[in-house]
Write a structure and sequence with these properties.
By secondary structure, the chain is α/β, with parallel strands linked by helices. The chain folds into 2 domains: 119 residues, Rossmann fold (3-Layer(aba) Sandwich); 127 residues, Orthogonal Bundle (Arc Repressor Mutant, subunit A), CATH 1.10.10.60. Helix content is 56%, strand content 11%. A 5-stranded parallel sheet has the order 2-1-3-4-5, with helices on both faces. Strand 3, helix 3 and strand 4 form a beta-alpha-beta unit. The longest helix is centred in the middle third of the chain and has 25 residues.
């Protein structure tokens, strides 16, 4: 989930914003809030949110100074400024510092606020996918397709982030804001295979790569792909490939002896 922090000295505005927005719709959760810029900075250092929604005029430290500190420490953080009409010049200063936008406090019921949330969600997702592509260009992200609906792209990203965890369709559907049945139908239609088949292929692909290129034990490889019983991992791998993991490893190393990378 994308982490969000809300900073505003008006308690009603702060808590109201946290309670009324459907954050899960955008794969977000509010992890912290603060009543002024100084406390906001302390909370930011503790939680490292990807999105900060902050009022401009606050006691102790205003939102512009908070935005300045955040952008210096974490330039990729999305900052949305909350302003009143009289704060326009401050808002413009915030934009120059790198804030992504500003919105009037009277406009929470308008589409503009939700459009910002959707924009931030899409930008963060794309950034994470690009980073994953750069780190693992030939492995887990090879199935990502930008034509897939946003919830499906988010689901694939959630799965590939950590294959060691068991991902059920119920859990992933909840994370992307869909019912299980709607998610399963949309996933199969978009990807061309069921959620279960897709995740099994991802695990098999990752396990095969690890067998070919590392000296990890079968138990360690099984744990990395979510099969935590070493004996079951061997049976599962043979059922999928027709070879035991050990046989597969030896065969591949004979064919590609230079691919092997020892693990320190």
């Amino acid at each position: 989930m994308i982490k969000v922090m809300v900073v505003d000295d008006e308690y009603i505005v702060r808590k109201g914003l946290m309670a009324t927005v459907n954050w899960k719709k955008y794969n977000m959760e509010v992890v912290a809030d603060a009543s002024n810029g100084q406390k906001g900075w302390e909370v930011f250092l503790e939680h490292s949110p990807e999105i900060v929604i902050t009022d401009i005029v606050m006691p102790e430290q205003n939102g512009i100074e908070l935005a300045r500190k955040i952008k210096q420490a974490a330039p990729d953080t999305k900052i949305l400024l909350l302003s009143c009409h009289r704060d326009f010049e401050y808002a413009q200063e915030g934009i120059k510092l790198g804030a992504s936008g500003y919105i009037l406090k009277t406009a929470f019921q308008d589409n503009e606020f939700e459009e910002y949330l959707k924009q931030f969600s899409d930008e963060i997702l794309k950034s994470e996918v690009n980073e994953q592509d750069a780190n693992e260009p030939d492995t887990l992200t090879y199935r990502m397709d930008e034509k897939w609906p946003e919830p499906i792209r988010k689901a694939v990203l959630l799965i590939t982030r950590d294959l060691s965890q068991s991902h059920s369709s119920v859990d992933i559907a909840y994370e992307v804001g869909l019912s299980r049945s709607h998610f399963s139908t949309l996933f199969s239609k978009s990807v061309g295979e069921s959620f279960y088949t897709f995740t099994e292929k991802l695990k098999l692909h990752a396990a095969s790569e690890l067998l070919e290129t590392t000296s990890l034990t079968l138990q360690e490889i099984g744990e990395k792909v979510g099969v935590h019983d070493g004996k079951y991992f061997s049976k599962w791998f043979k059922k999928c490939t027709g070879q035991t993991p050990s046989d597969y490893r030896q065969t591949k190393r004979r064919i590609h002896p230079d691919n092997f990378t020892p693990i320190p």
